[in-house]
Write a structure and sequence with these properties.
The complex is a heterodimer. Chain A is mostly beta strands. Helices cover 0% and strands 53% of the residues of chain A. Chain A contains no helices and twelve strands. In chain A, a hairpin with a 4-residue loop joins strand 8 and strand 9. Chain B is an all-beta fold. Chain B is built from no helices and eleven strands. In chain B, strand 7 and strand 8 form a beta hairpin. The chains are: A mainly beta, B mainly beta. At the A-B interface, strand 5, strand 6, strand 10 and strand 11 of A face strand 4, strand 5 and strand 10 of B.
Chain lengths: 117, 115
Amino acid sequence: AQSVAQPEDQVNVAEGNPLTVKCTYSVSGNPYLFWYVQYPNRGLQFLLKYITGDNLVKGSYGFEAEFNKSQTSFHLKKPSALVSDSALYFCAVRADAGGTSYGKLTFGQGTILTVHP
Amino acid sequence: AAGVIQSPRHLIKEKRETATLKCYPIPRHDTVYWYQQGPGQDPQFLISFYEKMQSDKGSIPDRFSAQQFSDYHSELNMSSLELGDSALYFCASSSNAGWATDTQYFGPGTRLTVL
């Protein structure tokens, strides 16, 4: 079984300040981790993913995420937040079952990010 | 770049009616996934298809069925609709046979309201 936890329902930051949205995961096998963003009444937009290699992954719109295997975490970060970053953020995981996997994404509960002017 | 297309975008049905949701994947994507997102909830995986065959199954009710056609588009058929089926239904697609490393790209969703 695989699971994802986003411990904060809401994160509030001031524009220009750094932001962090937390995510921890639990899987059997190699984890493949994803971040998506959802704006109101819109679909999920892919931000970035960790597959293997460098623990710091860079993605769209200046976002990055740090994979930490020992802490089973994949926190989303941005050095300087924008008001337009305000949205709902989902962390998701897929597991490699040792071969081809057609499997599902398992999502966390989501974190509402609000960036204040 | 072309994205995943879903139709209709909004659908209103009465209880016990049927509904059909359609999904057109990104060109050259061979794998399609369906997710259900209830109000204030995270998306829950329903079912997926690779090359017209069901590849994985999640918490999809028996009242629902889906298939993928030769042009790779997919349809989710929902019968005997219940109030609890009201949700946002997402389709996603990926390439390369849906390897775990592949990115799933999501459509805008179909908002189903059951009255």
